[in-house]
Design brief:
The protein has about 80 residues and is an all-alpha fold. The chain contains two helices and no strands. The protein has a single domain, classed as F1FO ATP Synthase.
């Protein structure tokens, strides 16, 4: 009797669990990606200080693109949670 109740609710619970893990992984992945971009940009500026403007512009553009993808992933996961 108790097993059937758990099995009936497990589909919905697994959906919530998957959405939560997906949102967390998207946020962690974006943080790691932006951190690596920042670190690489600082190293590049240290090697070639005269290229500061170009490196900074490319760094900001890449970070914005990563942040946009991460935001889209988190919103998709939240939609799974709230539409279930």
């Amino acid at each position: 009797m108790e097993l059937s109740v758990l099995l009936d609710a497990s589909g919905l619970a697994m959906g919530y669990l998957g959405a939560g893990i997906g949102a967390g992984l998207a946020a962690i992945g974006a943080g790691i990606g932006i951190g690596r971009i920042g670190g690489s940009a600082v190293e590049s500026i240290a090697r070639q200080p005269e290229a500061l403007g170009d490196i900074r512009a490319n760094m900001i553009l890449a970070a914005a693109l990563i942040e946009g993808v991460a935001l889209f992933a988190v919103v998709a996961c939240l939609l799974v949670i709230f539409k279930s």
